[in-house]
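Below is how a single chain appears once it has passed through the pipeline. First comes the sequence as given, then the structure the pipeline wrote out for it. We keep one example in the README because the format questions we get most often are answered faster by looking than by reading.
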Amino acid sequence: MVPNRHAERELAHIVSMIGQLERLLEQEARLPPLAVFELAYWRARIQCVTGSSGSSGSTDATDGTARVTARASALLARLDALDDAAASGALNSPRNSG
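Resulting structure:
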C-alpha cells in the first residue's frame, strides 16, 4: 500500500502543476522553454507514477491502484485538452463570460 500512497501524493502534486499550467496558458502566448512547462514532461511523470503503483495483491492495494489509474487517466485527459487548446489558439482568446 505504500507505493499507492506515494503515487497518490505524486498525482496530487501533478494536479496542482497542471492547474498552474492551465492558468499560465490562459495568460501567456508561450511558455518558457523549460522541462517543467512541457506537457510531455507531465505525461511522462504520470506514466512513471502509474507504472510504479503496483499492488501487493490485497484488495486495499488493488482498490488503491484503481484509484491511481483513474486519477492518472483524468490528468492525461486534461493534458490532452491543453494540447488541443494550445494548438487551436483557444487558450489565448477571450473567454465567454456567460
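The chain has three helices and no strands.

See the next section for the split statistics.
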